[in-house]
Design a protein that fits this description.
single chain; 863 residues; FAD/NAD(P)-binding domain; 7-stranded mixed beta sheet; 27 helices
């Protein structure tokens, strides 16, 4: 049994930036203190950074409040300065001192028994009760030594508890969670999992010198985005941009929408947007975050915000936990940035020393955000109002709220004031703190509205899909809203699991109400929403298999599905289901086994609805049952048609099925509008190309002859206007947009970088010179300027606008821009290619309308 050796005013556990800064402030104030570090050196997290790592000092606008110096620089230089300053201040550091337990030695706190819930992997929970005691606190070290402290500051971080790889093979010896020196890794195929700062820096370090011979892939579960902050929400923007540049330079490969499915010696099987892929792999470096050391913290008498594994401790505005006299700062408090941590270390010791007037370093920045709001509340009051009033923010600590609001805006609206207009661009999320807004559902009748009350959110469709606003939102009364940037929303969902679940719950509820209608209210489908699950489905993966049992219904949230039925021992294509469709109701209503197979055309997301819960809704709502039966009858007739034609027209059925599969492979699985040419009718006049050129400054967006064909259907090289466009993924000037009718177009801010051309998987974008503006007919008639009637300015300029030595003139001739179909947006009559086709061979189709059994029916009847 160890004996008590010393008593201190404050004990600081952990010598990272937060703990070291706290100890520095205690030393500067002359407080009796001890800094306990379990290793033999200061700041173990920074110490373990890879050699030569550049450490950033962000946020740049935040002042540093610490007795230690910190500026951006190399890891080695920063550690050297911290070591020197620690000695200079006379900080009482105790190395190799790992704390085993912290116990309150004072009386038990009345009514302080708390339940500690531990989630097991099998879904069960273990519950134990813990009685908190007042300080002073006894700290027991693993060596058996014991210390006494009036107050304790936990600055232990989370790095000692990394998230582990859960896939088959994740426990193999070549899977590691740390990279000390990337220069020691030579001639290896390396996979880095995780696109936070640590993962990005490891990947770049491994690929920095081509002489190392490493082949480096870094996996990102998110899709590629025009804004790197969206694709790399947990990384600093300079790091993310540098990684993207390395990818463009061929130094490494960023694999978007990709996860590890299985590992084996020398190989890795990846789940990608387009299916599975097996690649060489000698080493896996997993930088997938870490979780708080919950068992240790809870045994100190500290409660967490929820029983979620990634939840943080409950903290007061001055960092005090539910155990009086124990404070938590740094990464364990939810603040991973070094400057934040150091400021917290300074502040918490000032609070312990009695400085109750001290305000956090970010106070001026937040005060400026709240300055224009009514009611004259303080920053702390506003933060608490927003946190307690808005459902998605309630599980955040006051400290997390401060960081969150630095990336968000809050504003007030007068009654009748428009928050945003229908078809306006925007991907931010809005949360209502006070008041109410109305969704205008009829642009011609402002009285037809759907109210959204305080506490909930709106704008989630733009956040999820990136589409333009689907309705006009106006304030119904004096209203205060938080506008959460897309980046802040993605970060919130990543770091606060209850917030993610609440956003998904609200978006699911609204999608189901909109889809099923029939007078349903949120209360009617409450059980359905609570039991619903959002699943990611890879390309080719089935959500329903023909012949199996099952009653669950699937709503397609993102992506698309194809429906197939086995006829004569082979799958026959039945139909295409875009986002917003649902499937699976036939087995629920009729009983029996599944009558068809439904699989993902591209990587998709579905909402899986519990069949029994939905069955109870159907029983209570006859109108909904009638609607479901009518829609089900259409599918039943489809199945009957296939069965009736399988013998007499088996060739036509097979042809249609293969044709549909071909079209899906050519991009119809993610398209919203596609140009097709019926080669039975096409006479090769090229009127479609000429009309396209004439409508677009002489630059045709169409190549009729290019592209692939199946039977008589030809898919020319023309934009598909994808639901989630690849071309938008990396456009530096943000020149690519989606119009109100779904068209994807490029505006005049295009700088000709070619990123969109490289990212498009269908080769429908090209870089071309911009022709001069076509002079008028009179200018040509009287002065001979420009091309004549019917002569496109593009071809004319190539012949008649040579270089002349004038830099401005020659530069203008060299300037290129991205060229792609814009569906002739803004031109009366619609797409010129279709209007100009004399035989009706050119058609523009929406996949969900074209890939239907109606076409099969007409073809078989014609046969």
């Amino acid at each position: 049994m160890g004996t008590v050796t010393d008593t201190f005013r404050v004990a600081i556990i952990g010598s990272g930036p937060a703990g070291m800064s706290a100890a520095s402030r205690a030393a500067a104030l002359g407080l009796s203190h001890v800094l306990l570090e379990k290793t033999d050196h200061l700041s173990d997290t920074i110490y373990k950074y890879q050699k030569g790592k550049h450490v950033m000092a962000t946020p740049s606008q935040l002042i540093l409040r610490s007795d230690q110096e910190f500026d951006a620089g190399k890891r080695e230089d920063i550690l050297a300065k911290w070591n020197a300053r620690t000695s200079e201040l006379g900080i009482n550091v105790k190395y190799n001192a790992e704390v085993k337990a912290i116990r309150g030695t004072g009386p038990a706190i009345p009514d302080s028994v708390q339940q500690i819930v531990k989630r097991n992997r099998d879904g069960t929970k273990d519950v134990k009760e813990l009685q908190r005691h007042e300080g002073p606190y006894e700290l027991e070290l693993t060596s058996g030594e014991k210390l006494i402290a009036d107050t304790v500051i936990l600055a232990i971080g989370t790095q000692g508890n990394p998230n582990l790889m859960r896939c088959p093979g994740g426990d193999l010896p070549h899977v590691t969670y740390q990279l000390d020196d990337p220069t020691e890794v030579l001639d290896e195929h390396v996979i880095v999992v995780g696109v936070g700062d640590a993962g990005i820096e490891n990947a770049r370090g491994l690929a920095e010198d081509s002489a190392q011979g490493n082949v480096v892939s870094i996996l990102n579960r998110k899709p590629k985005s025009t804004n790197v902050r969206e694709s790399f929400a947990n990384a600093k923007e300079p790091n993310a941009k540098a990684l993207v540049e390395d990818d463009a330079d061929g130094k490494l490969t960023i694999r978007y929408e990709t996860e590890v499915k299985e590992l084996e010696p020398g190989w890795a099987t990846l789940s990608t947007r387009d299916g599975e892929e097996k690649i060489r792999c000698d080493r896996v470096i997993a930088r997938i975050g870490s979780a708080p050391p919950r068992a240790f913290v809870e045994n100190c008498g500290i409660a967490f915000t929820s029983d979620d594994r990634l939840a943080f401790p409950q903290l007061s505005p001055v960092f005090e936990t539910t155990a009086p006299g124990i404070f938590v700062i740094g990464a364990l408090a939810g603040y991973p940035l070094i400057k934040h941590c150091m400021n917290q270390g300074y502040d918490v010791v000032e609070f312990i020393n009695g400085n109750t007037e001290l305000k956090p370093a970010d106070e001026p920045l937040l005060a400026e955000k709240f300055a224009g709001l009514p009611k004259g509340r303080s920053v702390d009051e506003w933060l608490e109002v927003l946190r307690t009033s808005i459902s998605i923010l309630k599980d955040m600590s006051p400290l997390q709220m401060r960081e969150f609001m630095l990336d968000s805006d809050v504003r007030s609206y007068a009654p009748g004031e428009v928050v945003f207009e229908k078809n306006a661009p925007g991907s931010s999320l809005f949360a209502i703190a006070e008041g109410k807004v109305h969704v205008q559902i009829d642009p011609n009748d402002a009285s037809k509205v759907v109210p959204i009350p305080a506490g909930t959110i709106f704008g989630e469709v733009g956040l999820i899909s990136g589409r333009r606003r689907g309705a006009t939102i106006v304030a119904a009364e004096p209203t205060i809203c938080v506008e959460i940037s897309r980046n802040a929303a993605l970060k919130l969902m990543s770091q606060v699991p209850p917030a993610k679940r609440e956003i998904e719950r609200i978006s699911t509820e609204r999608q189901l109400l909109q889809m099923f209608g029939s007078g349903l209210t949120p209360a009617d489908i409450a059980e359905v929403v609570e039991t619903a699950k959002i699943r990611t489905v890879l390309a080719g993966q089935a959500i329903i298999n023909e012949g199996e049992d099952g009653k669950n219904i699937f709503v397609i949230r993102v992506g698309s599905m194809v429906v197939e039925k086995e006829v004569g021992g082979k799958p026959v294509f039945l139909s295409y289901l875009p986002a917003g469709s649902y499937v699976g109701e036939m087995a629920l209503i009729d009983g029996g086994q599944r009558t068809a197979t439904v699989r993902a055309a591209i990587k998709s997301e579905v909402i899986e609805i519990d069949g029994e819960a939905f069955e109870r809704v159907l029983a209570a709502k006859p109108a909904l049952m009638d609607k479901a039966r009518r829609e089900m009858d259409v599918r039943r007739r489809t199945n009957a048609l296939i069965e009736s034609k399988k013998d007499s027209f088996s060739g036509v059925v097979d042809l249609y099925s293969e044709q549909a599969k071909f079209l899906v492979s050519q991009g119809l699985g993610e398209a919203t509008d596609v140009l097709l040419i019926d080669e039975k009718l096409c006479v090769g006049c090229d009127n479609c190309e000429k009309a396209c050129a004439d409508a677009h400054e002489g630059l045709s967006r169409l190549d009729r002859e290019a592209g692939k064909s199946f039977a008589h259907l030809h898919v020319p090289t023309s934009c598909r206007h994808c639901e989630h466009p690849h071309c938008m993924a990396d456009c530096p000037p943000n020149a690519i947009h989606r119009g109100p009718d779904g068209e994807v177009f490029i505006d005049d801010t295009c700088i000709g970088c070619g990123n969109c051309q490289r990212n498009c998987p269908y080769g429908v974008i090209r870089m071309d010179k911009v022709p001069p503006k076509k002079p008028s007919l009179l200018s040509w008639l009287f002065f001979g300027k420009g091309p004549g009637p019917g002569e496109p300015p593009y071809k004319w300029s190539k012949k008649n606008m040579p270089y002349n030595g004038d830099p401005a003139h020659d530069e203008a001739l060299d300037r290129k821009k991205a060229i792609k179909c814009d569906m002739c947006a803004g031109i009366d009559g619609g797409p010129a290619c279709v209007r100009a086709c004399p035989t009706g061979a050119a058609i523009r189709v929406a996949p969900d309308e074209f890939l239907t059994v109606a076409r099969l029916k007409s073809e078989t009847e014609g046969a």
